[in-house]
Amino acid sequence: MILLTFFLRFNEKYLDKKISFVLLSVILCIFFGLIVYISYKIFLEYLPPFIKAPMSSRVFNTHSLISWPIIFSISVIMLKELSIKTKIEFKKLFIIVYFALTLIIAIYNSKFLFNYIFAHYNKEVGIKSVLKNNPFKTRIMMFYHHTFYNKIDTKDFDLWSKIKNYDNKNYWIAVSPHHKDLTRLGHKPILINANSFDFAYLGNSYLIFIKDIIENVYNIPFNAPPEPPLKTYHGRIPNHLVKIEFENKNYKNWLDISNKYNVKYVLAPTSWNIDLPIEFSSTDGLTLYKIN
């Protein structure tokens, strides 16, 4: 909004009436949307359910979708002006600025990136510990699995048909992104969705339950999560951390979890090495483990 305001003020001679009107409309949309958004958040507890349920604050924040195209466009125009004034060819100036910004961002994030990659470095194991539990590797594998194996035409429905026939007396533990399939196709209750903890807002009574599971099942301190890498993971546990913890558990650990939370089955990628008896594996790259 500020960038657009300055742009309209100092570049009015380069804009026709139609473009000026569109940009002014965007500014007003952001301004009034911001007022409604802030008011909505401040008075949220006092609003009736029929106003809160549609989550109207998201509607008034949709202008953020066009923010980056606008910022990029204005930046290009300003670079064009700078190119004319400095008599530097626009393409050269654009490349110089682009690589300068890239270098600044890379230097700024280098410490975080280093800690992110070597967060699970083990001196005794050496570099192999990084290669085995590298978060990039886990993300690539999960992306590949989700992209090529999670499509409707390739989904292994036999897996979910088998799961559907199991009893519903026990909770199940699933690895993201299979929580939805386990409930939607397998009709099974999951202990917790580690990929999204926003359901905690449904009631304070959930918090103690969630805290207990995070600390006992995923071995992460609730009040002091490790950072990095959890600093940037808002309300979820990334799969590479889940993989490390699940592979580190022995059978007795799983048995304790089963007795405490009434969990009997664990659904995870076949490539993971989990110390549990295997019920069966699927062509979907998933394996069902049973805690006897």
Strand order of the largest sheet: 1-2-4-3
Count of separate DSSP helical elements: 13
Count of individual domains:
2
For the sheet with most strands, the description reads: 4 strands, mixed
* C-alpha termini separation: 59 Å
User: In percent, how helical is the residue content?
Assistant: 40-55%
**Classification by helices and strands:** alpha+beta
Number of strands: 4
Low-confidence stretches: none
Please characterize this protein's 3D structure.
There is one protein chain. The chain is α+β, with helices and mostly antiparallel strands and 292 residues long. The chain has two domains: 2-87, no CATH class; 151-290, no CATH class. The protein is 54% helix and 7% strand. The chain has helices spanning 2-10, 17-42, 49-52, 56-59, 67-86, 90-117, 128-132, 135-148, 157-164, 179-184, 205-216, 239-248, 251-261; strands spanning 171-174, 263-269, 278-281, 286-290. The chain has a four-stranded mixed sheet with strand order 1-2-4-3. Helix 8 crosses helix 12 (239-248). The radius of gyration is 25 Å and the shape is extended.
Q: Could you list some keywords that capture this structure?
A:
single chain, alpha+beta, 292 residues, 13 helices
Short description:
54% of the residues lie in helices and 7% in strands. The chain is α+β, with helices and mostly antiparallel strands. A four-stranded mixed β-sheet has the order 1-2-4-3.
How would you summarize the topology of this molecule?
Layout: H1 2-10, H2 17-42, H3 49-52, H4 56-59, H5 67-86, H6 90-117, H7 128-132, H8 135-148, H9 157-164, E1 171-174, H10 179-184, H11 205-216, H12 239-248, H13 251-261, E2 263-269, E3 278-281, E4 286-290
Helix pairs in contact: 1-2, 8-12
